[in-house]
Amino acid sequence: MLANLIEFATTHYVLSGMFVTLLALLIFTEARKGGASLSCRELTALVNSEQGVVLDIRAQKDFSAGHIVGALHIPLEKITARMTELEKYKAKTVIVVDAMGQHSGSVCRDLKKAGFNAAKLAGGVASWRGDNLPLVK
Question: Looking at domain 35-130, which of 3.40.250.10, 3.40.50.300, 3.40.190.10, 3.40.1010.10 is its CATH number?
Answer without folding.
Answer: 3.40.250.10
